[in-house]
Amino acid sequence: MAFKHGKDTVITLDGDDLSAFTTTSELNRSADSHDVTTYGKSAHVYVGGLLDGKASMSGIYDSTAVTGPRAIIRPLLGTVVELVRKPEGTGTGKPVDTMDVLVSGYVETNPVADMVTWSCEMQISDAVVSTTSA
């Protein structure tokens, strides 16, 4: 097996690299499920439909970052922009997922006994293009 460490992940939103501010990212893929069961069956029969998915990222808030998550993500709320996620980092032959996303949420969390954090929720819009770095 070739295990990979998450620390090498690269993530950009609308061309801005948020990797230095991000501690967690997730790409969730799903597909519609259509019940096509007919009379006489003793179990459900399904066929697949349209692909769907969501993406998210979160990290530690940095008040000095003029190009950090707060400055970059908040103005993008409600818009569709490009998200690029490289789960193994940059380098020849490594996977790259590119997609358009609707930026649907930005949250800042302020716990009393811990660091301020941020998170971003995104809805995938159209197909995810998975390639490898050249």
For the biggest β-sheet, the strand order reads: 2-1-5-6-7-4-3
- Figure out the total of helices: 1
Number of strands: 7
Largest sheet features = 7 strands, antiparallel
Distance between the termini: 23 Å
Which ranges are low-confidence, i.e. pLDDT below 50, for 5 or more consecutive residues?
none
Q: Structural class, from secondary structure content?
A: mainly beta
Regarding CATH, which class? Mainly Beta
CATH architecture: Beta Barrel
Write down the CATH topology: Elongation Factor Tu (Ef-tu), domain 3
- Helix percent reads under 10%
Our estimate of the beta-strand percent is over 45%
Our count of domains comes out at: 1
**Radius of gyration from the CA trace?**
18 Å
Give the overall shape, derived from the CA principal axes.
globular
Helix-strand pattern, N to C? EEEEHEEE
Average pLDDT over all residues: 95
Name the descriptors.
globular, 7 strands, 4% helix, mainly beta, Elongation Factor Tu (Ef-tu), domain 3, 134 residues
Protein model, in words:
The protein has a single domain (6-36, 44-132), classed as Elongation Factor Tu (Ef-tu), domain 3, CATH 2.40.30. It has 134 residues and is mainly β. Strands 2-1-5-6-7-4-3 form a 7-stranded antiparallel β-sheet. The two termini are 23 Å apart. The longest helix has 5 residues, at 69-73. The model has no long low-confidence stretch (mean pLDDT 95). The protein has one helix at residues 69-73, and strands at residues 10-13, 16-17, 22-35, 46-60, 80-86, 95-109, 117-132. 15% of the residues are buried.
